[in-house]
């Protein structure tokens, strides 16, 4: 048994501490003060850059304020909101956005999961393949929009050139009502399928191997294993990826701006693009703020419903 | 896999959360209080006499969109203005054409600009004046500028507000800018395909283009602006509307519905969509300045329409397949004023110089001095020789201008025929309505008559929405 550690020093009355305070630390700084000091810069930044503008936009949404006209902001209460909800223009953009969100997210989910499933079954080169598939996601949407605009050009674009070499006719990808929206969905899918793939791959690699081994012993078919093991276990994670993508797709702006500018006519104008026009063409800041707040509300309500479903799924 | 924790629930202490929210709301309301106490602004006045100029180094900043005249202006100003003011450097900041309006007016909205001289489209003046974003230079013009040296309509178009709807300058109206660059559309035609003599009427032009397209597979009969951005498709329709005797609006009564979509307007839309559009290249429904120039330079169009100020590149052998020298290209390309039909109207393009109300005083003084310098007769001729399009009558008739490019005579001949769009604060919304609907008609997304009726109805709604309570901009 070793000697006990002395509890006193040579100076009577001075109690030795088992864990001496860090050198230089003031006695006034309690743990709580330190915690506040460390998080306050981030908190202030968050308040200044996110919460405050949101509240300001909320205030402006009840007024007729215009950023350029500069006059007083008169309260119009819910007039902006009722005008937006009753506007046929807004209904049209909402429908376009809905078609776009459903089309893009469904396509990306199917493709992303399929690619992830195929990659997860490989034992060699999985890392390289995953990295290569992630490249589109790392590019700026503006850059993606610009080079797809060239590729989809009806006259000199590489897509029509390839179709021509196959004996097929020219397609006006960006200037016809149906093909323009399809083109937007295709370009968004090209860029964001890797995101779904990445999440799905994480879920697939986390499925315990012994479940497959047990199923194999029971001579279960591949389809049975996929339907009863793979899909149920990956599904909740996949739904989170779908949620993120749906929110992103709902506020699509950049690709529309670069590829079609909302055309032909207004047939590819999404809600976000329309908010931009309301906000910057006539500088109707009050209306644009109300429009933005309504979009946020839609996202919050749909997300809450979605999360309730997700939680129920997990509890089951 | 198990997910023991519920997602999407945030636990915040009730009292603290409510306190934080209350503080934030109070701070927001306090901060917003400033925006509610102001009054409607009007343009501040510039002094009649140029204040004393600084001797310190100063950078005079312009803002324009990215095209050849912007680069020509920067080079010209730094070469020539520096001779008079060696301590001044001129910088022409450029943005993409589609962002031009937003780039200027978002800074105006912030009441702080990183430019001293905004180059506004003639139709932007109303919005800038009403919001008090640019200086009223009426007194400055009276004391420093020889207004009689200009074509009165050009002076009015690029500086006066309210604009001269009749095409004549109102000498009692206030001035907010001075001409920087004149412009209009030129007809560009392939002499080797349709002959040396350009078509004289719009109907003749269409039939010549039709024949040329049929005779030369792979070459489209026509190329013109159809895009739904900027003012592309709108200018195209307005041009045809003018040529076929239509009107954009009745300025006195502010009436559009029933004027734009009258019989002449309908005929113009029918000509554009059913006669001209079939002669364009497939997929050209989003073409603007660059795409039209590319089609001409690649030899893919018999007849094209484009802004004169953007046509210089067509003569550059490096950018063209029509010849290896400027002369060879000019053997094949001809430039002519637009054909006439029921009227001989042509679109007014170009821009004026203005002074930002939020620029420092030293920079505002320098901007006024630059404008006075720029509008001198000999400087306008030098600007013409450098590739600019002047507005002074003497400069327009000068050999320096007429010999600088094959299209400059087209401009000089077109000046008496010009018509502008509406110069009202609601311009940005009016032009967007027209752009999107004409673009829809050109690309088969709307029937031509429906598109024109929609334009008239929606534009009228914008003009009539002055007293609307809430929902402005929809």
Characterize the structure shown.
The complex is a heterodimer of chains A (316) and B (474). Chain A is mainly α. Chain A has a single domain (88-315), classed as MetI-like (MetI-like fold, Orthogonal Bundle), CATH 1.10.3720.10. In chain A, 69% of the residues lie in helices and 0% in strands. Chain A has 12 helices and no strands. In chain A, helix 4 packs antiparallel against helix 7, helix 7 crosses helix 9 (222-250) and helix 11 (271-280) packs antiparallel against helix 12. The longest helix of chain A is centred in the N-terminal third of the chain and has 33 residues, at 88-120. Chain A is globular and about 75 Å long. By secondary structure, chain B is an alpha/beta fold. Chain B has 2 domains: 58-183 and 350-419, 3-Layer(aba) Sandwich (D-Maltodextrin-Binding Protein, domain 2); 184-347 and 423-466, Periplasmic binding protein-like II (D-Maltodextrin-Binding Protein, domain 2, 3-Layer(aba) Sandwich). In chain B, strands 1, 2, 3, 6, 7, 8, 9, 10 and 11 form a 9-stranded mixed beta sheet that branches. A two-stranded antiparallel ribbon of chain B has the order 4-5. In chain B, helix 9 crosses helix 10, helix 9 (232-243) crosses helix 18 (427-442) and helix 18 runs antiparallel to helix 19 (448-463). Chain B is globular, with a radius of gyration of 25 Å. Mean pLDDT of chain B is 90; it is low at 1-13 and 27-40. Chains A and B meet through helix 1, helix 2, helix 9, helix 11 and helix 12 of A and helix 1, helix 3 and helix 18 of B.
């Amino acid at each position: 048994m070793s000697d006990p550690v002395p509890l006193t020093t040579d100076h009577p009355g001075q109690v030795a501490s088992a864990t001496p305070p860090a050198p230089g630390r003031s006695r006034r700084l309690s743990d709580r003060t330190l915690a506040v000091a460390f998080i306050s810069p981030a908190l202030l930044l968050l308040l200044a850059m996110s919460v405050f503008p949101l509240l300001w936009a909320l205030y402006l949404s009840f007024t007729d304020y215009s950023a350029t006209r500069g006059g007083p902001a008169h309260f119009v209460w819910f007039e902006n909101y009722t005008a937006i909800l009753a506007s046929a223009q807004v209904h049209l953009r909402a429908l376009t956005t809905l078609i776009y969100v459903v089309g893009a997210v469904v396509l990306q989910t199917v493709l992303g999961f399929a690619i992830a499933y195929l990659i997860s079954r490989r034992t060699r080169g999985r890392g390289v393949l995953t990295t290569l598939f992630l490249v589109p996601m790392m590019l700026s949407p503006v850059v993606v929009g610009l080079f797809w605009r060239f590729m989809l050009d009806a006259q000199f674009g590489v897509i029509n050139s390839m179709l021509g070499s196959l004996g097929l006719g020219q397609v006006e990808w960006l200037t016809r009502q149906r093909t323009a929206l399809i083109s937007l969905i295709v370009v968004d899918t090209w860029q964001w399928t890797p995101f779904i793939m990445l999440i799905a791959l994480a879920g697939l690699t986390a499925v315990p191997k012994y479940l497959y081994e047990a199923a194999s012993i029971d001579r279960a078919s591949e389809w049975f294993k996929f339907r009863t093991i793979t899909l149920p276990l990956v599904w909740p994670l996949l739904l989170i990826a779908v949620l993120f993508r749906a929110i992103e797709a709902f506020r699509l702006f950049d690709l529309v701006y670069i590829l079609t500018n909302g055309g032909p006519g207004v047939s590819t104008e999404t809600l976000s693009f329309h908010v931009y026009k309301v906000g910057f063409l006539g500088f109707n800041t009050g209306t644009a703020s109300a429009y933005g707040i309504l979009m946020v509300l839609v996202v919050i309500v749909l997300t809450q419903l979605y999360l309730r479903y997700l939680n129920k799924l997990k509890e089951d | 896999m198990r997910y023991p924790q519920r997602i999407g629930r945030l636990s915040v202490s009730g009292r603290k959360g409510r306190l934080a929210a209350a503080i934030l709301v109070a701070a927001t309301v306090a901060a917003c209080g400033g925006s509610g106490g102001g009054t409607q602004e009007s343009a501040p006045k510039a002094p009649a006499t140029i204040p004393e100029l600084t001797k310190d180094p100063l950078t005079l900043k312009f803002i324009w969109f990215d095209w050849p005249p912007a680069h020509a202006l920067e080079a010209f100003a730094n070469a020539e203005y520096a001779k008079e003011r060696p301590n001044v450097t001129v910088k022409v900041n450029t943005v993409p054409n589609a962002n031009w309006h937003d780039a200027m007016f978002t800074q105006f909205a912030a009441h702080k600009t990183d430019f001293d001289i905004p180059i506004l489209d003639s139709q932007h003046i109303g919005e800038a004046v009403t919001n008090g974003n640019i200086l009223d230079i009426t007194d400055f013009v009276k004391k420093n500028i020889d207004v009689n040296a200009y074509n009165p309509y050009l002076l009015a178009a690029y500086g006066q507000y309210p604009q001269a709807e009749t095409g004549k300058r109102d000498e009692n109206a206030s001035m907010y800018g001075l001409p920087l660059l004149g412009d209009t559309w030129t007809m560009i035609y392939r002499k080797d395909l349709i002959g040396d003599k350009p078509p004289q009427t719009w109907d003749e032009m269409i039939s010549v283009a039709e024949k040329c397209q049929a005779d030369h597979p792979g070459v489209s009969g026509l190329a013109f602006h159809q895009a739904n951005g900027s003012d592309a498709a709108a200018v195209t329709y307005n041009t045809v509307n003018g040529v076929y005797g239509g009107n954009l609006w009745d300025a006195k009564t502010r009436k559009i519905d029933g004027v734009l979509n009258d019989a002449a307007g309908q005929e113009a839309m029918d000509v554009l969509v059913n006669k001209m559009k079939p002669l364009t290249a497939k997929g050209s429904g989003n073409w603007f300045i660059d795409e039209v120039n590319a089609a001409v330079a690649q030899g893919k169009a018999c007849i094209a329409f484009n802004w004169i100020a953007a046509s210089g590149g067509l003569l550059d052998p490096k950018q063209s397949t029509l010849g290896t020298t400027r002369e060879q290209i000019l053997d094949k390309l001809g430039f002519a004023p637009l054909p006439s039909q029921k009227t001989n109207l042509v679109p007014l393009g170009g821009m004026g110089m203005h002074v930002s109300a939020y620029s420092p005083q030293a920079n505002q003084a320098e901007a006024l001095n630059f404008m006075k310098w720029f509008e001198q007769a000999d400087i306008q001729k030098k600007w013409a020789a450098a590739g600019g399009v002047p507005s002074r009558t003497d400069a327009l008739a000068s050999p320096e201008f007429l010999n600088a490019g094959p299209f400059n005579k087209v401009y000089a001949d077109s000046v008496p025929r010009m018509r502008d769009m509406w110069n009202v604060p609601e311009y940005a919304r009016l032009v967007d309505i027209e752009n999107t609907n004409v673009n829809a008609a050109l690309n088969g997304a709307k029937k031509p008559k429906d598109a024109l009726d929609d334009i008239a109805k929606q534009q009228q709604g914008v003009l009539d929405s002055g007293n609307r309570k809430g929902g402005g901009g929809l």
